[in-house]
From TrEMBL:
Protein name: DNA-directed RNA polymerase III subunit RPC5, variant 2
Keyword tags: DNA-directed RNA polymerase, Transcription
Pfam families found in the cross-reference section: RPC5
GO biological process entries: tRNA transcription by RNA polymerase III
Gene symbol of the encoding locus: POLR3E_1
GO CC, one annotated term: RNA polymerase III complex
Keyword Transcription (UniProt): yes
Amino acid sequence: MDVAAESGSDEPGVLKEVDCYISPAMQKQILLLLYKNRENYHTLDNESIKEARIKANLDLLEFVVEDGRSSFVESVGKQIDTYLLRSNTVAFPRTLLGYFVNDECHFIPLKRDALVLDTCKEAAKVDKTNQNSDSSTSTPVGPAAFVSARLRTADAIALRGPMASRRKPADSDPDVIFLKQQVQAPWCPVHYKRFIPSEAFERRIPLLYPNDDMPELTRNRVTGPSQEEYVNNLLASVTPHVVDRSRTEPVKLPTLGELIQTIMIKAQLIRFDKLVICLRERFKDPHSVTNTSVLQYLPTFAVLLRGWWVAKSEILYPPNSFSEHSGTPNTLLIRARDYIVGFIL
């Protein structure tokens, strides 16, 4: 995709798009962080992170974030309030890693699950003046631990019924297994650093292509692809295309004679004025349907009988075929119907 710039601007005239390659080992080290129930522009760059840690398998991330009220909290002599952001692994569709360097946009397709950060819990607010008095009166609380209990054989027999046989040993309990997995995977400290060069905003503009957010483009009547169209064009090479292999034959409109034959087979008996009305409603050119044009084809498919046009027997019963109900040859049916029509005349 080449984006042309204005001749009077200082920006380069052509923006090159170059596909890059990233090793699988490096892809495993890239994390896609998302905020739950937050705006897209609200990133970690706007947060004051105190502590951070992550699991060794990169599937669980925790941030201790300040709430932004440090000046007010310190004035009243209380601890700085913090809250915990804990991640949850969520399957995420194919995304794109892009960077801008040397007047070129480099894009790398990524297949990576996202770590969705959500507020897990709030830290306890403790007053420093009352901290000593509270600690003397309250009993120390140890860390939470998982406890499993087993019933004795005599107690299990006393329960009777299926409850005794449904007891699960502690080793196969899914809660115990999950707890052991969390304990076995060690935590690793994380040093969160903000790397924002001075020209980051200018280099980020070609990646975002914010046509919809620039009112001067509307005033100058300059149109361009939207943000969604821009991203779809970038992902077009890696997006699977569904090919429709069904054949669509062109529809051939019937002629006036074929339309008269179809109406006479269905109606078998019709007035002339009613036939003309039906033809004008169904023919491709209603103005060409006149009494003269209809009479050119009508005697081929029908005969006039006491003011009614009756379909010919050869049209209703094609020769050299048989009746679909009784198996009688159509030649006999034609002779019988012609005899009845002649008797009416």
